[in-house]
Protein backbone atom coordinates (compact mmCIF):
# COMPACT_ATOMS: atom_id res chain seq x y z
CA UNK A 1 0.00 0.00 0.00
CA UNK A 2 2.77 2.44 0.95
CA UNK A 3 4.75 1.50 -2.16
CA UNK A 4 1.69 2.11 -4.33
CA UNK A 5 1.35 5.64 -2.93
CA UNK A 6 5.06 6.28 -3.55
CA UNK A 7 4.72 4.99 -7.13
CA UNK A 8 1.72 7.27 -7.74
CA UNK A 9 3.65 10.27 -6.41
CA UNK A 10 6.63 9.39 -8.61
CA UNK A 11 4.38 9.11 -11.67
CA UNK A 12 2.76 12.47 -10.91
CA UNK A 13 6.16 14.08 -10.36
CA UNK A 14 7.48 12.69 -13.66
CA UNK A 15 4.35 13.84 -15.51
CA UNK A 16 4.68 17.37 -14.16
CA UNK A 17 8.41 17.41 -14.86
CA UNK A 18 7.76 16.47 -18.51
CA UNK A 19 5.10 19.18 -18.71
CA UNK A 20 7.53 21.81 -17.38
CA UNK A 21 10.30 20.65 -19.74
CA UNK A 22 7.94 20.79 -22.74
CA UNK A 23 6.73 24.25 -21.75
CA UNK A 24 10.23 25.64 -21.36
CA UNK A 25 11.19 24.16 -24.70
CA UNK A 26 8.23 25.96 -26.29
CA UNK A 27 9.19 29.20 -24.50
CA UNK A 28 12.72 28.97 -25.93
CA UNK A 29 11.26 28.71 -29.44
CA UNK A 30 8.91 31.69 -29.18
CA UNK A 31 9.35 34.32 -31.87
CA UNK A 32 7.00 37.00 -33.14
CA UNK A 33 7.34 39.25 -36.16
CA UNK A 34 5.33 42.47 -36.16
CA UNK A 35 5.07 44.66 -39.24
CA UNK A 36 3.67 48.16 -39.62
CA UNK A 37 0.54 48.51 -41.73
CA UNK A 38 2.51 50.20 -44.50
CA UNK A 39 5.18 47.47 -44.41
CA UNK A 40 7.95 49.97 -43.76
CA UNK A 41 9.02 48.66 -40.34
CA UNK A 42 9.31 45.06 -39.16
CA UNK A 43 10.43 43.94 -35.70
CA UNK A 44 11.33 40.42 -34.64
CA UNK A 45 11.08 39.59 -30.93
CA UNK A 46 12.05 36.36 -29.18
CA UNK A 47 11.66 34.82 -25.73
CA UNK A 48 11.37 37.25 -22.86
CA UNK A 49 10.79 40.14 -25.23
CA UNK A 50 14.33 40.07 -26.58
CA UNK A 51 14.52 42.14 -29.77
CA UNK A 52 16.14 39.94 -32.40
CA UNK A 53 15.92 42.17 -35.40
CA UNK A 54 14.61 45.30 -37.03
CA UNK A 55 14.02 45.47 -40.77
CA UNK A 56 13.41 48.76 -42.53
CA UNK A 57 12.14 49.18 -46.06
CA UNK A 58 14.67 51.37 -47.92
CA UNK A 59 11.89 53.84 -48.75
CA UNK A 60 11.30 54.51 -45.05
CA UNK A 61 14.01 57.17 -44.96
CA UNK A 62 12.17 59.22 -47.57
CA UNK A 63 8.72 58.75 -46.08
CA UNK A 64 9.27 59.18 -42.33
CA UNK A 65 11.04 61.79 -40.26
CA UNK A 66 13.53 60.51 -37.67
CA UNK A 67 10.96 60.91 -34.88
CA UNK A 68 8.27 59.13 -36.93
CA UNK A 69 10.69 56.32 -37.72
CA UNK A 70 11.61 55.98 -34.07
CA UNK A 71 7.91 55.84 -33.11
CA UNK A 72 7.19 53.27 -35.83
CA UNK A 73 10.04 51.05 -34.62
CA UNK A 74 8.91 51.32 -31.00
CA UNK A 75 5.31 50.54 -32.00
CA UNK A 76 6.34 47.31 -33.73
CA UNK A 77 8.63 46.27 -30.88
CA UNK A 78 5.77 46.96 -28.45
CA UNK A 79 3.32 44.96 -30.55
CA UNK A 80 5.65 41.98 -30.86
CA UNK A 81 6.60 42.11 -27.18
CA UNK A 82 2.92 42.15 -26.16
CA UNK A 83 2.29 39.08 -28.33
CA UNK A 84 5.27 37.28 -26.75
CA UNK A 85 4.00 38.18 -23.26
CA UNK A 86 0.52 36.85 -24.06
CA UNK A 87 1.92 33.61 -25.49
CA UNK A 88 4.23 33.21 -22.47
CA UNK A 89 1.29 33.62 -20.10
CA UNK A 90 -0.72 31.11 -22.13
CA UNK A 91 2.09 28.53 -21.89
CA UNK A 92 3.04 29.10 -18.25
CA UNK A 93 -0.42 29.53 -16.66
CA UNK A 94 -1.20 25.79 -16.58
CA UNK A 95 1.98 25.26 -14.53
CA UNK A 96 1.05 27.77 -11.84
CA UNK A 97 0.19 26.40 -8.39
CA UNK A 98 -3.48 26.30 -7.54
CA UNK A 99 -4.63 29.66 -6.24
CA UNK A 100 -1.73 31.60 -7.78
CA UNK A 101 -2.40 33.38 -11.05
CA UNK A 102 0.25 34.18 -13.63
CA UNK A 103 -0.59 37.87 -13.26
CA UNK A 104 -0.09 37.79 -9.48
CA UNK A 105 3.25 36.04 -9.84
CA UNK A 106 4.70 37.86 -12.86
CA UNK A 107 2.49 40.86 -13.62
CA UNK A 108 3.12 44.49 -12.78
CA UNK A 109 3.82 45.02 -9.10
CA UNK A 110 4.38 41.32 -8.46
CA UNK A 111 7.02 40.16 -6.08
CA UNK A 112 8.14 37.38 -3.82
CA UNK A 113 5.01 37.88 -1.72
CA UNK A 114 2.93 36.18 -4.44
CA UNK A 115 4.74 32.91 -3.74
CA UNK A 116 4.62 33.14 0.03
CA UNK A 117 1.76 31.90 2.19
CA UNK A 118 -0.26 34.45 4.10
CA UNK A 119 1.11 35.26 7.57
CA UNK A 120 -0.37 33.21 10.38
CA UNK A 121 -1.81 35.22 13.24
CA UNK A 122 -0.90 33.84 16.67
CA UNK A 123 -3.79 32.36 18.59
CA UNK A 124 -3.75 33.83 22.08
Automatic annotation (TrEMBL):
What superkingdom does the record give? Bacteria
Q: Which InterPro entries match?
A: YbaB-like_sf, YbaB/EbfC
Please identify the protein, giving its name as recorded: YbaB/EbfC family nucleoid-associated protein
Give the organism, scientific name.
Answer: Nonomuraea longicatena
Q: Provide the taxonomic classification.
A: Bacteria, Bacillati, Actinomycetota, Actinomycetes, Streptosporangiales
Amino acid sequence: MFQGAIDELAEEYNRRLRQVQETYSKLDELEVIAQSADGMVTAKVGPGGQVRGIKLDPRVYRKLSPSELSAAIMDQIGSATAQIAARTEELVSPLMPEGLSYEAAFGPGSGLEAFMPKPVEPQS
